[in-house]
Amino acid sequence: xxxxxxxxxxxxxxxxxxxxxxxxxxxxxxxxxxxxxxxxxxxxxxxxxxxxxxxxxxxxxxxxxxxxxxxxxxxxxxxxxxxxxxxxxxxxxxxxxxxxxxxxxxxxxxxxxxxxxxxxxxxxxxxxxxxxxxxxxxxxxxxxxxxxxxxxxxxxxxxxxxxxxxxxxxxxxxxxxxxxxxxxxxxxxxxxxxxxxxxxxxxxxxxxxxxxxxxxxxxxxxxxxxxxxxxxxxxxxxxxxxxxxxxxxxxxxxxxxxxxxxxxxxxxxxxxxxxxxxxxxxxxxxxxxxxxxxxxxxxxxxxxxxxxxxxxxxxxxxxxxxxxxxxxxxxxxxxxxxxxxxxxxxxxxxxxxxxxxxxxxxxxxxxxxxxxxxxxxxxxxxxxxxxxxxxx
Length: 392
Known about the structure:
Layout: H1 2-37, H2 40-48, E1 53-59, E2 69-74, E3 76-81, E4 85-90, E5 103-105, H3 108-114, E6 133-135, E7 149-150, H4 155-179, H5 191-211, H6 215-235, H7 248-264, H8 268-275, H9 284-330, H10 332-374, E8 386-387, E9 390-391
Antiparallel strand pairs: 1-2, 3-4, 3-7, 5-6, 8-9
Helix pairs in contact: 1-9, 2-9, 4-6, 5-6, 5-10, 6-10, 7-9, 9-10
């Protein structure tokens, strides 16, 4: 009887243990499933990448996901393909993987579902691009060989035009006040109080020290670059708006414009220093390629510095937000317990990004002024504090 009772006790203990382990395994599997459904990388990239609409929030319908409410602002799609001509419609036509007028906007879900990411080119790279518009066949599958020219207004383009309009209206209204004597004969008012110290700062702390007597020639360009970058940085921090400064195409164009201005500011002394530097002859074959490479590294530094700094902050903020849901998927109590910490970190980085928005506009403008000043190399009388080709 004792043996039988002991065996029964062991069976009961192991049964309870098996149930506990099974339940825990099921919870872990459920948490893993939730984490798989929530792809943090995809969510972050979706927020920082360009798109054909402004997406503000989504109210999900658990019973019918397709009936979820999306608060969006669709943007115009303008495409052209040979033999078909131009087509224009709103991006909302592409919702729920729809094909409209023979075109499809490729989304990650559609690519995974149909295995399009497995179609590789000669270099082993996927031939289909996420977020690109393709012409489709009768079955709605994208056609690779059909060329489509996309002239659509994306959210980055739309917001850039919007911020440019605001900047023009603001600056023209301030200029009109100065023209009418406001701020000249008496104290400045309104936006004049905010803008005038910034203009004075760019003139006295960026243009004059680096450009000397020629600062007035380049001041309009430096002020335009500073305010244009600043206003896009600030709008990029508003929830729902696009992070235009975190787009490599935006910073690339700004860098190329600065590069052109730098090249047109050079003189014979600058190029003589590049192709025949004042160093021993044995060192010239080594230094000349370095000097030539330095011509192109300057705009590259402008492009990458602004792009990386403005993109990194947004990714960090979104990562902290995603960690809340990842922890909650693992365990509800863990999600609630760690959320105050992650929210505090996200707010801290956000406030830091506000400071970075001003700093990056300042750095881009300052480096541009420094590079233009270096293009005057050889004209020592042009720059105060300029000695032996260095800007002090």
